[in-house]
Amino acid sequence: MFVMRKVFLSTIFIIFLAVSCGETTGDKPVNKGLAGFQVEFAGDFDLGSPEHRIDNPEGGIVTTINITALGYDKKPVSDYSGEVEIGMLYGENGDIARVTLTNGYAENVGVIMRNCLDYDRVIVQEVKKHEGEEIYEPTGKIGVSPVFYTTVATISAIQGTVKGAKGNPSAFNNRNLTLKDREMVVIAVIEGGFYLHEVGAEDYSSVYMYTYSTPYVDDNIEEATSLPVGAMIESANGSVFEFFGFTEMSFPTFHPVYENKDGKRTIKIDTSLIPEPKDIGDILNDSDEMEKHEASLVTVKNVSVAWFNENDSSFIEYSQFPLETSSGASIMAQTLYTAPLFNAVAEKPEEGNTTHHYNFTGILKQHTSARPSTWILVPRDMNDIECLDCK
User: Fold this and answer.
1) Which H helix or E strand runs over 291?
2) Would residue 7 count as lying in a domain?
3) Per-residue b/e over 267-284, b at no fewer than 16 CB within 10 Å?
């Protein structure tokens, strides 16, 4: 009996080993049916290239595509019928959102490819409707078009906004982009980053590059140096991010323009390219117009400090306080990091205080939760605060 049990157990062990080592019986399973889609541009659509980029009109690139259902053998599935949604890898499709494939094919489907920068693709994905409901869910079966190359990213394109949305966010929010092929100059440097201006652009001309620490350069120069105001930037890369309505490029890498001076390789500096501050006194209540100057150099003239609660956290933590024009319009100011010697409490319109009038200049920021104004003026230093009636 002992010997028979031992033989039986040995047989079970051998079978276990065979199964665990992947030995199976029968035919190998084969995937059947729809695997995905082939997406092709119809006609003679020009894909462009990194060296030759296609035009990108304001209303979008208008074209058509052909969609073919493919099986796991990469051959057309001629008996397939189903619905697909058409979108973009980065941009958005402004034309037909959903089409039906019949006999595994849909021809000359219109697409309007909007908000495309640098490069993009059209994406097609199968969707199925919930029974009795107007809800469509993707099945995971997709297809992508060939890459096409459009206009490179610029500051003015990134700062262009989605109208009507709170804080007017960038149309390219959450996308990693590279700025190049434009003259760009550093207009301000702060502890956590710097402000970059696109030379020649009138509106949406500047953006905040959030480096998370004081920006410095050690790229092929004799010693590391803080990034100077007026530095010319050849290219910069970062991820577009909306921080309470304020457009930033986070974790950026950047490459200054270099020149040789006295036999040394140095960063090219041209402060003459820093634009004159824009007077925004007449547009403080027009958010769309203010948005055009976000992250730019601006000024408000003949303003005074309005009453505020000095025990409020916005003042204690960030030294934010309101400025008021003679017409009653307001904008917040923040002086903690860049102009800490300005005594806003002493300027409050209270008994015993002497209220002065100022021209305030600086960088225009936005914070959608700030009150009474969502717009914040940050002077670069004390020189940006000009008292008009101080003795």
Assistant:
1) helix 287-291
2) no
3) bbbeeebbbebbebbebb
What contacts 44, CB < 8 A, 6 or more positions away?
none
Using CA atoms, how far apart are residues 121 and 304, in angstroms rounded to an integer?
52
| Eight-class DSSP state of 374 | S
On whether the CB atoms of residues 338 and 319 are closer than 8 A, the answer is no
Residue 155 lies in a domain: no
Total domains, the chain: 3
Q: How far apart are CA 295 and CA 382, in angstroms?
A: 19
* Per-residue pLDDT reduced to its tens digit, 224-275: 678 999 999 999 999 999 999 899 999 999 999 999 888 788 899 999 999 9
Whether residue 67 is found in the same domain as residue 168? no
In terms of C-beta density within 10 A (0-12 exposed, 13-18 middle, 19 or more buried), how is residue 112 classed?
A: middle
C-alpha torsion sign, points 329, 278, 240, 115 = positive
The answer to whether residues 35 and 75 touch, using CB atoms and an 8 Å cutoff, is: no
∠319-380-292 over CA atoms, to 5°? 95
Tens digit of each residue's pLDDT (9 = 90 or more) over 108-156: 999 999 999 999 999 999 999 887 778 899 999 999 999 999 999 999 9
The range of the structural domain enclosing residue 207 comes to 164-273
